[in-house]
Each structure stands twice: as C-alpha cells, then as structure tokens.
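Folding Task

Wanted — backbone structure
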Amino acid sequence: MRVRVRDEEQRLAEAELGAELGERATLVQFSSAFCAPCRATRRVLGEVAAMVPGVRHVEIDAEARLDLVRRLGVLRTPTVLVLDAGGRVVRRAAGQPRKADVIAALGEAV
C-alpha cells in the first residue's frame, strides 16, 4: 500500500461496517460510484481476501457513509484501511494499492 500511516487509535465495529469482521483481518475499501481506480482496487482486495484465510473485504460507498468518511478523515477514493481481528486500524492507504503491498500490510494485522 503506497501511503502508510499507522493509526492505533481508530477502531471500526461490525455495526459500523455493516458486515462481519474477518477472523484474522478486514480490508475496508471506501469507494465512490464513478471512480475507476475503485473498481481495480475492488478486484485486488477481493483476490487477496480469497487467497488469505480469515481475511474479509468490505467495500463502503463513501457518499452514503459520510459519517465514517468524516470520522476517519477519508479525503479521496479509493481509501483502504487494514483492520486487525478486533477492528483496529493498523494500516491505511489512499489510491489504488498493489497486491503485493496489500499482502505485506496484512502481515501487520494478523
């Protein structure tokens, strides 16, 4: 993930995500409707979640969830958060991530 910012203070609960957390980690993607990099990011994160046991990919429509966007300081789409099993944000990146970087970032969450 190109931009790496450690943020140990933020957590997301299943109720906020509208989905269950992954057993080991969760990849949270903030997207918008007309964002071409968001589609590519969806594919990359989906592939990583499928190949790493216990990892879930959750996509959130940034326009529909302005409460989370503001709380988490999401400034552009796609923005990806890597959560540990408890929902703590361990990594975040803005822009389209490379698959290898996502896998490396998961190492910190699991």
